[in-house]
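=== RUN LOG ===
request id: a7f3
mode: sequence -> structure
chains: 1
length: 158
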Amino acid sequence: MSVNFNGPFYLMRAVIPHFLSKPGGPAQGSGSSTQLPPHKGSIVNICSFASTSGAAAGAAYTASKHALLGLSRSTAWMYRQDGVSCNVIFPGGVRTNIMGNSGTQNLEMQGAKALKPAHDAMPAAVMPEDVARTIVFLAGANGVNGAEVAVDQGWRTM
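=== RESULT ===
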C-alpha cells in the first residue's frame, strides 16, 4: 500500500494545489456552453490488470491497485471542472530486469505458484518505451480525462 497507493496519493495531494493555482487560459471548445475548462495539469497513474481483477497477483498488490484505480477515477471526476485531468495506464508485462533482480526466476517457488497461470497466458512483453510514449500522450492530451489505457499486447482482452 505504501508504494502502490500512498505514494501516488501523497504526490497527487501535493501537485493538485499547484495545478489549481495556475492562471486560467482560454477555455477549450467551440464556444458552446459545454466548453472544457482551461487545462491546468495532468496526472497519469500506473495501475495494473490487477486493478480490475482479483486474479494474476497477490492480495496486497491487488488491493493496492484497486485503491489506486478508485483514487484516479475519483480525481478525474472531482477536478474535471478545474482543468485537471487524471488518467491511468494498465501495463501488461513490461520487458525489464525485475525478475532477474528479484530472485524469483523459478515460478515454482512458494508464493509464486499462484502467478504461474497468468504468467503462462501473458502475451509478449511490451517495451518500457511503449509505456513511456503512452504516458507522454496522456499527459499532453487536453480533453482526455478519466481514460484507462491498456498497454499490454491485448492481455486484458483475455
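=== NOTES ===
The domain at 39-96+106-157 is CATH 3.40.50.720 (Rossmann fold).
The chain has a mean pLDDT of 83.
=== END ===
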